[in-house]
Structure formats: C-alpha cells, structure tokens
User: What shape does this take?
Amino acid sequence: MQENQNSITETIINTINTLFSSLFSSIDNNVYSVLDDIVFIKPEILQDNVMSSLFGTSTTTGLILLANSLIIGLALFYIVRYACSHYISGETEQPFQFLFKLLIYTILANSSYFIIEQILNINSLISLAIREVGENIFGCNISFSELILKLDNVITTKETSLNVFSLDGLLKGFISVNLINLLFTYSLRYIILKVFILITPFAFITLINTSTSWFFKAWFKSILSLLLLQSLVSLILLILFSTNFSSTDIMSKVLCIGSIYALTKASSYIREIIGGISTDVSTNFNTLRYLIK
Assistant: This one.
C-alpha cells in the first residue's frame, strides 16, 4: 500500500515536472528571439508599408498632408488674431517673428520622416556599439537569443533534471514569468514608439504657437525615454554577460535573478532619470489597481 502511494506521488511529481519543463522550454525557444526584434529598434521600422502609408513620403500624402493643412489653419488663425489685436486685449507676435517660426517649423514638419529616421539610426548605432563592445570582450553575441544559453548554465529546463519543487525550479519559474513580463513591456513600448513617430510632424507644428509648445517638450521627453531604453537594456545585458554564472553557486543564481529583474524595470529607471513615460506593464497594472480601489 505504501509503495503504491509512493509510486502515485512520484508519478504526479514527474508529470508536473514534465509539464513545466515543456512550458519553460517553449518560452525559451520563442520569447528570446522575439525580444531581440522588439527591443533593438532600427530605422527599418519606418520602411513598413503601413507606417510609410500613414506617415506619408511627400507633402501631399499621409499625415504630412494633414500637418500641412493644420499649418495653413494656424496661419489663418494668426491673420485673424493679428487683425483683431487692436480691439482685443492680449499680446500678439509680430508678423516677422511669426513668419520666421512658421517657415522653420514647416520645413521641420515636412522633413520629419528624414529627421526621425536619422534619430532612430543614431539610437540604434549607440545600442549596437555597446553590444559590440561586449562581443569583442566576451566573444559572444550580446542579445536575448544568446541569453538563453547563458541562463542554461545556471538552471536547465531538461525534463530529466528540472524539479519545480526545488530552488532551481522556483528560480526558473521566476525567470520565465519575468520574461513574459518583458515581452508585454517591450511590445507596449514598440507600439507606443510607433505612435510617437507618427505624430512627429504635429509635434514640430506645436512650436509655432507659444501656447502649444509644451506639447513638443512632452513629446520629445517621451520619445527620448522610449529610445534610450534600448541602450540601457544593452548595458544591463553587457553586465549580465560579464558575470560568470555557475549552476552550483548560489551567488550566481541570485545575480542572475537580479539581472532579469533589472531588465523588467529598465523602463521605470529611464523614467526616473529623464522623465517621459514608462511602459513597465507590472507598474501600470499596480497603478490601475490602486486607482480602482
């Protein structure tokens, strides 16, 4: 009787270990490669057919056309306001000053596709340079795809050795949950960055009027925080790859967990440093839950 109970217990444990091992392996084989694509954004994001159509490649297509229509509207608004300035209170810009600003920011708005492309290119080169430093020093590709091989040296997901009821099993579960969090966080960042790219022409236009210039400052700070995030991620990966992890060293496992946690909180760290917006999904969920209470 006792032997049958032990056999049933062992069967249940082995089944649970097999299920979780398959789950962890699936996450490892799919999430890491996707993270490389959505974290390290390149100028090629603008070459997407949908983005090109929405943004517009000339002054008569896409959002550029809408931006030019808005510029004409602002010019007409200024003419009416200047004509009525003798009858209403409030200061009005001089025509020469307004025309100069109108000319400069109209050129910037119509060149926004080129400007944002160069910004993306510079940002991509900075993060690539950080990772190439690590490649030259450590002789391996500094990426999420390579990270799985690094983590396997600490915690394996093989069915024959993984035990979800052990310390290694708990740590592996923590890593896998945080990788899903990473996927949601950087997917949100990818979408939000596309939105901020699309409104670039309108951000330049808001500088024409001093009462709307605050929008450009908020836009610039937000898009800067979203772009610099991948440089911070590159630095964290660089530190992670510089650490010698061992499956028998508890300290290595603790540092591994700390590195993964730092990756999930990178967006919040950037916001604390330069401002802007945070795409940390866990933080946003906690804030929403607090507001609902």
Notes: The two ends are 52 Å apart (CA to CA).
